[in-house]
Amino acid sequence: MTPHGNLATEPTSKASRDPHVAALRQVHRAMAELRRGTPVLLRGPDACLAVAAAETVGAQGMAELAGSALGAPVLLLAPVRAAAVLQRPVPHAPDDEGAVALRLPPSLMAPEALRSLADPTVERILPEAPERVSVPPLAQAAIALAKLGRLLPALIAAPATEAAAERLDLLTVAAEDVLAYPATAATTLARVAEAHVPLEDAQDSRIVAFRAADGGIEHLAILVGRPEKSAAAGGAPLVRAHSECFTGDLLGSLRCDCGPQLRGAITRMAQDPGGGVLLYLAQEGRGIGLVNKLRAYSLQDTGLDTLDANRALGYGADERTFLVAATMLRALGMERVRLLTNNPDKIAGLAACGIEVIGREAHAFDPNGVNDGYLKTKALRFGHLLPE
Ligand SMILES: Nc1nc2c(ncn2[C@@H]2O[C@H](COP(=O)(O)OP(=O)(O)OP(=O)(O)O)[C@@H](O)[C@H]2O)c(=O)[nH]1
Ligand SMILES: [Zn+2]
Q: TM spans, by residue (predicted)?
């Protein structure tokens, strides 16, 4: 509210009238609410669902959820996590919205118990088995919202009304806007800053920052040499779409190959007459976020590989959208590229977003004695094109 009235009904700028921007803003707010343990209301065409993240909800959030609920809350879990909690296979039902709903005994309806049900890295013997019940409408959007917030995809959920949510001052967000968010956010990426940053391995480098209209973390393009010139002259510059890896890129972790891939790509672009572009994408852990990647690592230390560890958390093997990279390349005027990668999904993903990948350049580094299993899994289970 302002002294001039309600911004929702009296837009003061073009941006606040744009339905895409309004949707992005609301979804981003909803993510932040879940992250701090506050419930939000998902609005669908026929029903509403109040949800709170099992990982963050506290006593107040539980009380607010109960206060807005029309029925008993259930726990929504991704099917793999539900199977682990129930200690039996969970057959797929056609209308399950990619989630399993469990009715919890009162002993498990408390924040600490919910956290342990959500998190496979926490060992817990259940006093009573939860009962599988039918999945409420909008469960898929609920799981998607938790994932967007880089939380464990596990939510406590109950049918609710908009009036009750308003009375409790809970944020309401359209389920369809949650599902559309990754694509909508990617298409609003715009250049916001640019600077010359000489690098150890490439003196003639510039960084261009891109921001989406949601207020999320910026993605960066590192331009080495003059790739725009090469593109404008009909060439296809070297491009690497590099998902950020705090542990590998910054700390030199030996668990993965990201550090050598990052520095190696920049060195290679510096040597290429056409230069190159390294997209440094805010998609840590293949899109699951750093905290979940650390959880995945701890599961890998118990014997799971990188793919099964992601699934045990309730995430997919790869949660990235390549539309981010494609939008940045288009904004830079580079729609024909040679891609530095071993990952065929990246080639297909960029091609599906309208980028012409005219060639692939292998980008493999020798195992280091720690990441050998990780590299093997990439070849065997992700189909990466790695040398024998
Ligand atoms: N979830 C998860 N992410 C990881 C793990 N190890 C590395 N990553 C992340 O994976 C991303 C890099 O993806 P990779 O699959 O190694 O490589 P790629 O970029 O898809 O393929 P290339 O182009 O061939 O390198 C970075 O964001 C890393 O943080 C892991 O064990 N689990
Ligand atoms: Zn890494």
A: none
